[in-house]
Write a structure and sequence with these properties.
Helix content: under 10%
Number of helices: 0
Strand content: over 45%
Oligomer: single chain
Structural class: mainly beta
Order of helices and strands: EEEEEEEEEEE
Shape: globular
């Protein structure tokens, strides 16, 4: 599985962005998909995930502002980010995990995209 993330950019606080992650391969629908982010000098942290059955999970810091979704017909997972804050600034990575159960940990994921930069100005 190869993952290609896109949609990052520079936005003012309170604004919105939608990240996309396109996956190769015919088994996309069987993978849990996750979004993580990493700010300079910090560890990579969980943002959101969606299981193969479309159950969703969010970090407390983004709950109510971000929405993860998937389109299996397009082999794509999305992260709609509303109400962005300066503390959301980071490189955002998408990941795919076959059979992932504990979707909040990086070790559950087998494949990673290259990352897309999100910068939120105050």
């Amino acid at each position: 599985v190869q993952l290609q993330a896109s949609g990052g950019g520079l936005v003012q606080a309170g604004g919105s962005l939608r990240l996309s992650c396109a996956a190769s391969g015919r088994t996309f629908s069987t993978y849990a998909m996750g979004w993580f982010r990493q700010a300079p000098g910090k560890e990579r942290e969980f943002v959101a995930a969606i299981s193969w059955s479309s159950s969703t999970y969010y970090a407390d810091s983004v709950k109510g502002r971000f929405t993860i979704s998937r389109d299996n017909a397009k082999n794509t997972v999305y992260l709609q980010m509303n109400g962005l804050k300066p503390e959301d600034t980071a490189v955002y990575y998408c990941a795919a995990g076959y059979g992932a159960i504990v979707v909040r940990t990086t070790s559950e994921y087998d494949y990673w995209g290259q990352g897309t930069q999100v910068t939120v100005s105050s």
